[in-house]
Write a structure and sequence with these properties.
Layout: H1 18-28, E1 34-35, H2 50-59, H3 73-85, E2 96-100, H4 101-111, E3 119-124, H5 129-136, E4 140-147, E5 153-154, H6 156-161, E6 167-173, H7 185-198, E7 201-205, H8 221-224, E8 230-235, E9 247-253, H9 260-272, H10 278-288, H11 303-316, E10 321-322, E11 331-332, E12 335-336, H12 346-357, E13 359-360, E14 362-363, E15 375-378, H13 383-399
Parallel strand pairs: 1-13, 3-4, 3-6, 6-7, 7-8
Antiparallel strand pairs: 2-9, 4-5, 8-9, 10-12, 11-15, 14-15
Helix pairs in contact: 1-12, 2-10, 3-10, 4-5, 11-13
């Protein structure tokens, strides 16, 4: 027997955990599964514009060697221009890092920061890679409450109460996955003020910064706090529907002197992985400087807007189910009233739903929510698929008991 490393004992990533493993078993047995579990646009016919793909195709022959460890210069320059246009000052292409998706950069940013026992403030619910990566890096994820009655904005008083001498960083996921919340400017300023007073590094996961509904306005944390060191993470997967290219970026802004040693460590880690996939990097400039605009999909009559509205309407029509209408991102996070649906093990519920209705969703505790009364539903599928799927969920809930 070759045992796994002990540091993996507390690492969880339930989006691709036991429920998905059961799904793969059912598929191997010949069952067709409707998958509304991850934000993967391409399987639902949401593709990046041809101009972006053409740039990559044209660049393949020139992409056979390693690039600079931070990424090719045109990609880093395009990212810097993007944030400058959006009000983030002092962005230098020399301190933009291109990665194999944001996921790689999240792990790198924490590896360069954490010593054993160091604490990182992470929202609850969160995108669970953050919690898993903190744990993998020998740190401790301390979850702060995001309040459903505040449209899932963070409870700033709760955040403040959790800060200790071991706290090294504050993670902000905005727009939020899984809730779809878009944080108010006032909430962000209060969070940033806590970081300022306690010398915390701010890690801003803003991969959905353009996917907004109903007039919601996204505020970049780095733009609101030019005096703070902020690491902003974004990429091609969502705004530009190019998840499979695994092309993301990390942008350093704010004063460099307080984080000079940390940035040396980040550079070391970038060099150790040689570089990100080079052909995929050529998509970045084509998308960011090419006038590619997701807005038509988000306005009334646009596909994502219509799918969000229909899914929300159908979910909230189920007895005992209510749901915040997301202002951003690609997800609904409905609540099952505990007085109506007495769910004690939400992972078991998702496996039962999968086995009985061949519908794959993700349970709320998989996003480090402390209660078992939520699900995440991805609304990337066409309206007819959503109608059928949520109809199956309603049928399941009407008789399900634990």
């Amino acid at each position: 027997m070759v045992p796994q490393a002990s540091r993996l004992a507390d690492v969880r990533y339930d989006i691709r955990g036991p429920v998905l493993r059961r799904c793969l078993q059912l598929e191997a047995e010949g069952h067709e599964i409707t998958k509304l579990n991850i934000g993967n646009p391409a399987p639902f016919g949401l593709f990046t514009p041809d101009a972006v793909l053409a740039r990559v195709t044209e660049s393949v022959a020139a992409s056979q060697g390693y690039s600079d460890a931070r990424g090719i210069a045109p990609a880093r320059e395009a990212v810097a221009r993007y944030y400058q246009r959006r009000g983030v000052s002092g962005v230098n292409p020399e301190e933009v890092y291109i990665g194999n998706g944001v996921s790689e950069l999240i792990v790198m940013s924490l590896q360069a920061l954490l010593n054993p026992g160091d604490e990182v403030l992470v929202p609850s619910p969160d995108y669970p890679l953050w919690t898993g990566a903190v744990t993998l890096c020998s740190g401790r994820a301390v979850h702060y409450r995001c309040a459903e009655d505040l449209d899932w904005n963070p409870d700033v008083e709760d955040v403040a109460s959790l800060i200790t001498e071991r706290t090294k960083a504050l993670v902000i996921i905005n727009p939020n996955n899984p809730t779809g919340a878009v944080y108010s400017a006032e909430t962000l300023r209060q969070l940033l003020d806590l970081a300022r007073r306690h010398n915390l590094l701010v890690l801003a996961d803003e991969i959905y910064d353009q996917i907004l509904y109903d007039g919601a306005v996204h505020q970049h944390a780095a733009a609101l706090a030019p005096d703070l060191p902020v690491l902003t993470l974004g990429g091609m997967s969502k705004n530009y529907r190019l998840a499979g290219f695994r092309s993301g970026w990390l942008v350093v802004s704010g004063p460099r002197e307080p984080v000079g040693e940390y940035l040396e460590g980040l550079g070391l880690l970038a060099n150790m992985r040689m570089c990100a996939n080079v052909p995929a990097q050529h998509a970045i400039g084509a998308a960011l400087d090419g006038g590619i605009d997701v807005t038509p999909l988000l306005q009334p009559g646009g596909r994502l807007r219509d799918q969000r509205d229909k899914a929300w309407e159908l979910l909230t029509a189920i007895p005992g189910v209510d749901c915040y209408k997301p202002a951003g991102a690609l997800y609904l996070f409905p609540r099952l009233d505990p007085e109506v649906h007495k769910i004690y093990d939400d992972q078991r519920m998702c496996i039962d739903l999968l086995e009985q209705q061949h519908l794959l969703l993700t349970h709320g505790t998989g996003f480090n929510l402390p209660t078992t009364d939520h699900l995440r539903v991805v609304f990337l599928a066409p309206v007819d698929v959503l109608e059928d799927s949520i109809g199956r969920l309603a049928e399941f809930l009407s008789s399900y008991r634990q």
